[in-house]
């Protein structure tokens, strides 16, 4: 008798319960409507206010619009749960996955960080012969290469150790820094091996440390680096480790790539590096799935590929899962998030929220992509491609390497990957040098229609936007044990500079011809996803009862945002720190980002990807003592904020010296004007805001070095 046996799903999509959150949002909405209504009523019916009120109406409407964009995103949150155990039963042969790591500067990004990320990837719980790890080094550093060589030797001990004992955290610096991670197995054999492994890791660290302090003998394996200048050198591609034996104890392939760089040839930062990685890996292993991680984001959950595969293979319609994005989480986050950059509440509400729409944006690190989506395919287009011939059109798009086009064609037509079509990795090196050259992309579609997109320092967001515009959806997955963990920058200028790059990147997208608005009108970006991408005082007199509207709005808005923080286990202090940083970044990072984009549009200058300096790992050393300090340095990023502080402080000083009792609404724009007229007329509400700001800034100022 036939039973109607349906295999259990690989994942579930569960709409989140968020009644209280919705109530809070509605309260804020009510006050927003009241405020705008009051403003319109006063202007149109009572005919009062004039130009300042019109300006206020404009500002409040902008604020309201931004708020609606973000709230629309948070409204329909969903969660996804995956079942990796079912995967192995349902899918007998798991597909290969290529793992990409990017690093760009051996000083700002110390190689031991990259090494840890690579080790965590090599040790993932996935068939070893299905994984290949490619490291792109934009710094063209013999030290990075040397470190990876040493790491690959250590990996031969580390990977079997992790698998034998089911180690949970497979980045050694993290594993050895936290005693609690080693508990669970008290056998003497484990103790012995653990001790040996710790010593080996210490040796590896010392090796790398020593190497960083001496000059390299650039002969033998290092000869390629002899004449290489960082920004002027041919491609250097080296197969560090080629895995020829299948079985549990093997280590996945490890390949080092430093693409060609020439002074007059734009290299497009990380997006350029990712495209070279796509091509080189395309000719070596050509896996249908790609994982992308930054050098400072190690895999914290060894099952992460299995989780991602549950979504990528388990979706009924491929269209519903063009890519999978894991959250960016940070280890050893400072208490109360003093720099407002741990993104916990933001990701919890926005990423889960947008997951209920067309899907999360691409965060650049911790994302699994279908290779064919990166190659510019639209959903359902694979059927059209069928058995795609390597015709001229394909070469025009993908560049002139026949061998690469063959590999791309097999991906586009969805034909099965055949390992034996690539005899050995080393034998492909000469051909891969060609696809990693500067000139390879000339007159091709790379960066425009396929690959990671050029034109924004937030290439990840732009690439995700292009994918959504084609009609693909994406899935956000937050696993119980964080999938990836990274380090968030600390200090003053590093944080503001990172925000500035994101701001610049977002604004480049808004002003580009791939803007979300255009994508919604002419392509398949959904309207509310568009609002998500877009998201990125004048007060009544104090005697006027209408003052209650902005006051209520202020309170309800802040209560809601505070509730959001508390809801994800963050302290009120962390909320306050985030609000503080939001104020600081909007007048510095966002302002400079905006300026940079205007200058780019006017063709005065180009935008630059300023790499975030990564803190050294402190496994065997003590912790930093000045963590959480907002430090000032000579960076121009501080100019606008300090100007505003001085302006506010001057306002305060003048106000306290003034004897005038006539209080009128004054705002930041009219303030300098009034300063010149020497008529300081400041209302109590503005005084409150100014004082609060000055106090907040004063506190930071005291810590100035
Ligand atoms: O010319 C470059 C510049 C950067 N990178 C790499 O890009 C990654 C991200 O750089 P980082 O300075 O760490 O920036 P973050 O702000 O931490 O990165 C976030 O924001 C970037 C866009 O602004 C995205 O590229 C990242 O994936 C995303 O994690 C790092 O691995 C770098 O090595 C390169 O490979 N080549
Ligand atoms: Mn980073």
TrEMBL record:
Record field: transmembrane: 20-38, 50-68
Subcellular location: Endomembrane system
Gene Ontology MF term list: cellulose synthase (UDP-forming) activity
SUPFAM superfamilies: Nucleotide-diphospho-sugar transferases
Membrane topology: Multi-pass membrane protein
The keyword Glycosyltransferase appears for this protein: yes
Residues that bind UDP-alpha-D-glucose: 109, 138
Keywords: Cell wall biogenesis/degradation, Glycosyltransferase, Membrane, Transferase, Transmembrane, Transmembrane helix
Active site as annotated: 138, 460
PANTHER family (UniProt xref): X-BOX TRANSCRIPTION FACTOR-RELATED
Protein name in UniProt: Cellulose synthase-like protein H1
